[in-house]
Amino acid sequence: MTLDGEGLSAAETLSKTRTFGKVRCHNPSCMERIQPPAGADHAKCPTCGSEYRLFWVRPDLPRIRGPVWDVNRKIAKETFARKEEAKAQKDSKKGGK
Ligand SMILES: [Zn+2]
């Protein structure tokens, strides 16, 4: 028997398998499911930290309207900076003959 530890009723379990109320992270390297609070106007991915603006097709059916650029750009910039830093370290090692 599998328990997810949330103590859901049968009805809640059923609605959960239909994935209502969830959106999928638009980060191609993440694709995590995000479950925003009902009526929230944006949601943050718990896995990669990207933030998305939401609209609600129905009270139980959110859709991603678009990314929150400020947040996602900052994440991309930090990732890029880390990569550049790693590259610079590699280059300096290579350069020291
Ligand atoms: Zn994500």
Explain what you see.
It is built from two helices and five strands, in the order αβββββα. The longest helix is centred in the C-terminal third of the chain and has 27 residues, at 69-95. It has 97 residues and is α+β, with helices and mostly antiparallel strands. The chain has one domain. β3 (42-44) and β4 form a beta hairpin. It binds zinc ion (ZN). Zinc ion is lined by residues 25, 27, 30, 32, 45, 47-48, 50. The site of zinc ion has 8 residues, from loops.
Biggest sheet features: 3 strands, antiparallel
Instruction: Give start-end ranges of low-pLDDT stretches.
Output: none
- The number of E-state strands comes to 5
Mean pLDDT: 83
Catalogue the ligands: zinc ion
Strand order of the largest sheet: 3-4-5
Specify the oligomeric state. Answer: single chain
Number of separate domains: 1
Shape: elongated
Secondary structural class? alpha+beta
Number of helices: 2
> What is the radius of gyration?
19 Å
How are helices and strands ordered from N to C? HEEEEEH
In short:
With 97 residues, the protein is α+β, with helices and mostly antiparallel strands.
What attributes does this structure have?
alpha+beta; 3-stranded antiparallel β-sheet; two-stranded antiparallel ribbon
Q: Which SSEs are present, and which pair or pack?
A:
Layout: H1 10-17, E1 23-24, E2 33-34, E3 42-44, E4 51-58, E5 61-67, H2 69-95
Antiparallel strand pairs: 1-2, 3-4, 4-5
This protein binds zinc ion.
